[in-house]
Amino acid sequence: MDFSSHSILWILVIGLVVGAIAKLLMPGKDPGGCIITILLGIAGAFVASYLGQALGWYQPGQPAGFIGSVVGAMILLLLYRFLFRRGA
After folding, report:
1. Where are the domains of the chain?
2. pLDDT tens digits, residue range 45-82?
3. What does the radius of gyration of the chain's CA atoms come to, in whole angstroms?
4. CA angle (59, 62, 67) in 5-degree steps
5. Distance between CA atoms of residues 38 and 57, nearest Å
6. What does residue 31 show for φ and ψ, rounded to 5 degrees?
7. Is 76 helix (H, G, I), strand (E, B) or coil?
8. pTM, whole model, 2 decimals?
9. How far apart are CA 38 and CA 16, in angstroms?
């Protein structure tokens, strides 16, 4: 997987927005708060980019689309909630 500095910057910016949108689409208490949700959004954008490139949906170096990034962030947020529940 080959990311240029421009595509990494784009993934970070989209990830910030995607983290906020994932939080809005999946309301409820998160064990890590808003900062963790934004970091999961950034990670979701990277995961969606990597998987999209591996599946041939995106060209090498091309970041994931907005919807793919939101789905990636929501999956990571769901996994995070499952693994790090409060009071567990």
Report:
1. 5-83
2. 788 878 888 888 877 766 667 777 788 888 888 888 78
3. 13
4. 105
5. 25
6. -60, -25
7. helix
8. 0.67
9. 5
